[in-house]
Each structure stands twice: as structure tokens, then as C-alpha cells.
Amino acid sequence: MKESALYKVLSVKPFLFLWLAEVFSQIAMNMINFVLIIVAFNLTQSSTAVSGIVLSFTIPAILFGVLAGVYTDRWNKKKILFITNIIRAILLVFLMMWHQNLFAIYALSFAVSIATQFFIPAETPMIPLLVRKEFLLSANALFGMGLYGSILIAYALSGPVLIFLGDSHTFGFLAVLFLTASFFVTLIRYKNAVLDGPRNGAGELTIIGEIKNAAHLIAKTGKVFHSLFLLIMVQLLILILAVIGPGFAQQILGITVKEFPALFVTPAAIGMVVGAVVLSHFFHNHPKDKMVSVGIALSGIVMFLLPYSSRISLVLAAFLLGVANALIFVPSNTIVQEETSDELRGKIYGFLNTMVAMCSIIPVIMVGRLADTFGVASVLTGIAIVIFLIGAYRLFFRR
Length: 399
Hints:
2 domains; Growth Hormone, Chain: A; 14 helices; 0% strand
């Protein structure tokens, strides 16, 4: 029996350990997001306080994302992964002691997010250093499964863990997850010297010079530019759906806001995981650009039908959106890794992280206001038409 591509990738032990480190760290980070929002609201009974938590996650990406990418390309990526996980574990120990002080929560959440800005551009760029080019799609499929599966696990665990362990011990539990991720990082063995720092005089460039080099590559390489645009678009769509989700639940479905995550978030995460598996098994050699275009068009069609959903059809629609997300996310990440050099990938992903944070602020605010003014159904329909047209253009007119 022929081995699956996923099995072949997981049999590469350095990648397996990197993937396990990703899973544990992503579960911990997603749980921090959920838990801090709950803790801040319970402490203050204020939505404004919750907004402060969200800002403490977002602002560091704007301020430090690109800069972190530059230093990630200069430093040893394995050491960065190890140190950032240790730092986040230590910060969570402080949260165990100061979780009843809102300003301490803001400060520590901000610090955790800063450490995460260095973790992100060190993690994904390691994939092409650990697996062969022909397995990049499968490796990114596994990373996508880990990313979205961790959201599902974190969502499922956050409430029960808070109930059984209490606020203080929950932060201790999350610290242990980060320490576990650090342990798996120590097991990664590699031969590529690029993880140890820049080559070919890259270290002699100024920070601004390195940022300019990365920006020039993005602007001049169409595949990289389009892939980054699509990765930004996917994450913006997720944020937009999160903003209008409560109104969608009440205005269109007639369900409580508390029911919405179970009926939408869970099947969407499962769809992403299933989509990633199907991609790797059956479409491993299919043109990546076509897969992305199908994913965009499918997203537009499903979002157009969302206003007409019932409870049952909502679950199916959410699942299909997850599959569509996988069709965009996995090939786009693979293209970025194939088209960039080892010395530039950290900066590219740092740039991506910064742009997602910057681009999310105005659209998220505007979508909320538009939904309040014109209704959720109208906003969903408008967004769906734009997305479908982008997908259709890429499928039928773009060479």
C-alpha cells in the first residue's frame, strides 16, 4: 500500500517535533486569547475592558511584526522558538499572581503578544528547511490542521479548564503547554546553516535595508504578492465573520449568541482540518493557483447563501467555509515558501503579520457599523459578491 504524503512528512522527525511544538504553543496562545477575554469581562463586567484585551493582542503586531521578522532572519530560528516559548511561560506565571489587576493583565498580555511576534516568523519559515520541496504542500496542510485544530481545542477547553482549575491555575496550565512546546523544539535537529543566521553578507545590511529588500521582493514577485494578499484576505474574513457573528445569530438565525460558536466555529475548524487532509491526499500535484481560485469562489458562494441558512444548513455552510479556507491557506503558504529564500522568509512572514493587524482595524470597524446600519444580511451579500468575483476572475480570466 502506498504511503500517504502526510505520513511521509510526519516520518521526518525534525518536522514532526516542529509540528508538535506548533500544536502545543498554538493551543496555549489561543486559550490565552479566550481566557483573558473571559477573565477581563468577569473582573469588570465591561465590553470596553474586553476591547483593551483585543488591542493588547493586536498593537504589538503593528509595532513589532516587521522588525521581528528582520531579527528572526538574523538569529537562530530554533533558539527563537525555544526562548519565546519560555518567555511566554514565565509571563503566565506572573499572570497567575496578578490576574485580578486589569492593568497588569493588559501589560502582561501585551508582553506575551510581543514575544509571539518573534515566534511567528521563526516557525513557518522553518518548514522548507526541514522537508523536501515536493512535500511542502503536505507539510503546510499539517500546519494548517494544527493551527485551526488548536483553535477548536482551545475553544473547547477554555471554559471547562477555567471552571475546574480557576483563573490562577489555568494560567499555570497554559505555562506548562508552552514549556512542552519548548521541549519539542529542543528535539529538532537540522543541517541547514541558515538557521544559525544570515549568509552572503546579509548581516551587514541595516534593518531598513533588509526591510526594503523584502518589500522589493514582494512587489516584484507576483506569486508572492498575490499569495500574501490572499493570506491577509483569509484572516480578514475570519475577523469580519467574528464581528458580525453575534448579529447574524440573532437577526437571521434567531439563536442566542452563546449557541453560535458551537454551530459555526466548530464545524468551520473541522472543515479546515478535513480540507487540509483532502488537499494533501488527493490534490498533492494539482496546480496550487487553481486550488486557491476554487477556494475563493467557494467562499463567495457559501457566504452568499449564509443569510438564507437554517441551523442545520449553517453547520454545513461553516464546514464548507473551512474547506474553502484550507484551499486558500495551504497552497498560498506553500507558494510563499517556494518563491522566497531562506534569508528573507522571516521578514516576509513578519510583514504578513503586521499587515493583517493593520488591515484588520478599519474593515472590522466599518463592517460592524455597516451591519448595524444596513443589516447583517446585506453586508454578507456584498462581501460574498466581491469574493466570488475575485475567485471567478482568477479561475476563468487570469492566466
